[in-house]
Amino acid sequence: MSGDGGPGRGRPGRRRRPGRARADSGRPPETAGSPATGTAFEIVRELEIEGSPAQLWSALTTGTGGWLWPMEYEPREGGAAPSGGTVTRWDPPRRLTARVEDPDGVPGQTLNQLDHLIEPRDGGRRSWLRHVHSGIFTDDGDIRYEATVKHIDFHLHTLGQYMAYFEGRPVAFSAVSGPPAAGAPDAFVRLARALGLPDDATDGARVRVQAPGGELDAVIDFRSPYFIGLRADETLHRFFGRNHFGARVGVCVHDFGAHADAKGTELAWQDWLDHLYG
């Protein structure tokens, strides 16, 4: 996880609204540095999530397409991890750690490590997750740090949505970025208005947005100046205001429908973005 992009299994008859991640520690002292040494960082988040530790473990290892993007782990210590990394801890369903030390594997970093600690809660019906993302940035440390913090909080929130509403369901994942104009300072504001979101619509509001193929009936599950999350009956739509971090606005769709078409969804949203910023 970097700073670049079904019913839950809680108590029967009761669904708790997934909470946002709680920050347990902030930014550590920076490593005074040059591009050779870089800037060290560590971001710690703790949260409780719907689902057993085994279900959460699956979401973190084989179900990442449902809330982040598709990734693969070789299920053993020393095995291959995403972005050219290595699994340094494989202890299901309790501890997962992966580390990347190749500068080419994670652009802008000489080190990137993800550590997940899982414990059961509520008799095993819920799980506690401690997520630690650490590493060394080689350039633009302040901007990269801010982007990483904000992306982590959004991705962990999406993990909570996935676990509460879609856990274990097959998913088709699509991701696109807008054209160069989608990097303008007002690009994300333009996207929200093109969707038809009222300026005052916040988390929990039910909305009808203008999506490719027609209107989408959804609930706003996350909204900030940097991200918008929409949850529909069979999809999670994620909108990224990466223009704030020197990149372009992007869209990800996690489609859990029986007739999901990842390529078709990707082409439709790419056309939508190209027209919006064309």
Radius of gyration: 19 Å
Instruction: Name the quaternary structure.
Output: single chain
Strand content: 25-35%
Helix/strand order, N-terminal first: EEHEEEEEHEHEEEEEH
Q: Identify the overall geometry.
A: globular
The residue fraction in helices comes out at 10-25%
Segments where pLDDT lies below 50 for 5+ residues?
5-20, 23-36
pLDDT averaged over residues:
88
How many separate helices?
4
Largest sheet: spatial strand order: 1-2-7-6-5-4-3
The major pleated sheet works out as: 7 strands, antiparallel
Beta strand count:
13
What is the CA-CA span between the terminal residues? 30 Å
Structural class designation? alpha+beta
Could you characterize the architecture of this molecule?
A 7-stranded antiparallel beta sheet has the order 1-2-7-6-5-4-3, with helices on one face. Strands 8-13-12-11-10-9 form a 6-stranded antiparallel beta sheet, with helices on both faces. About 11% of the residues have low confidence. A hairpin with a 2-residue loop joins strand 9 and strand 10. With 278 residues, it is an alpha+beta fold. The two termini are 30 Å apart. 21% of the residues lie in helices and 34% in strands. The longest helix has 25 residues.
